[in-house]
Each structure stands twice: as structure tokens, then as C-alpha cells.
Amino acid sequence: MRILVINGPNINMLxxxxxxVYGTRDYNALLAFxxxxxxxxxxxxxxxxxxxxxxxxxxIQSAYGRFDGIVINPAAYTHTSIAILDALKAxxxxxxxxxxxxxxxxxxxxxxxxxxxxxxxxxMGLGFEGYRQAILYLAKNYGAACAAPRSK
Length: 152
Ligand code: DQA
Fold this sequence. Notes:
Layout: E1 2-7, H1 19-22, H2 27-40, E2 44-49, H3 53-62, E3 69-73, H4 82-91, E4 95-99, E5 121-124, H5 129-142
Parallel strand pairs: 1-2, 1-3, 3-4, 4-5
This protein binds 1,3,4-trihydroxy-5-OXO-cyclohexanecarboxylic acid.
């Protein structure tokens, strides 16, 4: 199966930004981690990161017909972006939401997730491991091996 992994604003600053919250490993380490998780799940992964809401919307739209699953950490757009929510709903590709930190234990303004409303599952507070769990979840529940047998 083909999985698109989308990371939103400031995820490219991993390792530098608030290491007490997001850890000390950088974005390149995350890319390597995601590749290994994809190999484990026997899934092909492609990663995309942008600091721009419209670019994320464009990328979700372009996934239509090309990807079987989406893993998305919309970062700060989690709490503001109806456009990303609508894009996920528009393409109808099973999406899993990931957050490195446990947003449920953070500020009040982080308590809403618009894209999460279109997600089949959310992992938060697991650091990089959340991406692995998301990839394994998609492979298990939406991968070829679990596809319903065709009727005659
Ligand atoms: C985040 C949590 C968001 O609230 C924050 O704006 C981020 C990262 C996370 O991965 O924990 O940028 O999505």
C-alpha cells in the first residue's frame, strides 16, 4: 500500500524547536524513522512537509487516486484549519492523525482538532512512535492483505 505522510508547520524545526516538548531528534531522523516503519508494515511511504496551509491542501488533493492512506501531523493547523479538514473529507482517503506531544494535556487552544474530525484514528504523546503506530494501523486495516475478497 502507498501511504502519504504529511507534516505541517515547524515540524522541519524538530531538534531545535522546544526539545523539552518535541525531543532532540531532527526532521531527517523522523524521515528515516518513517521509512523504517513503512518497511516494517510493507508499505511504501512518501513524506511531505510544509509551513503553508494551501500547500498541504494541494498535497492532500493530489493524493487522490495515488495513495491508499494518509498519516498527518497538521501541527498548529490542527487547531485552526477547516481547509485541511475539508480536503481530507474531499479525497476520502483513510487518514490517521499524529501528534508528537500529548495535546490533550496542553493549552486550551490546542484542545480542538479540525483535521482530526476526518481521521479514522489519532495517536498523540508517543513522539516518533506515533507515526509508526499510524503506519501499522493503516497497513493492518486498509492494506491489500485485509482488502475484502472480490465477489464473483
Ligand atoms: C503538534 C502539536 C501542535 O499543537 C503544535 O502546534 C505542533 C506540533 C505535535 O506534534 O505535538 O506544531 O502537532
